[in-house]
Design goal:
mainly alpha; about 45% helix; 6 helices
Length: about 120
């Protein structure tokens, strides 16, 4: 691979639990390449400067406030269960990608929290 050059981006697609995330993570480790962030795909704007520490601190505070708001709705248990089966890496995906898969924090409030709740 060191002698060949890629003129086009490499696009990975795969069904859940097929190893596409592992392959993505391995390719993202290459210092000569850059993994795209989901928000850059959905909102193509110039990337935030990586040395913008004040802006990063503000984003971290906003993220913590959003997380605390979700937990105040009682989502801590459902989020913990979801993360146990599908870990989320900040450089790969974020909460918005789950909306496109049908998962929504609002819908989790309406769903039963006990698997036996629907059994009669």
């Amino acid at each position: 691979m060191t002698t060949n050059t890629m003129s086009h981006p490499l696009v990975l697609c795969g069904l859940p639990r097929t190893g596409s995330t592992l392959l993505y993570n391995l390719l993202a480790c290459d210092p000569a390449s850059r993994a795209i962030i989901y928000t850059e795909m959905t909102q193509p704007v110039p990337p935030v400067a990586r040395c913008d520490t004040a802006g990063q601190i503000q984003r971290n505070i906003a993220g913590r406030q959003y997380r605390d708001m979700l937990y105040s709705f009682g989502l801590a248990d459902s989020l913990r269960e979801m993360y146990a089966s599908h870990p989320i890496f900040s450089y790969e995906e974020d909460l918005l990608i789950l909306f496109h898969t049908g998962w929504s924090w609002f819908h989790s409030l309406l769903a039963p929290h006990d698997d036996n709740e629907l059994a009669m």
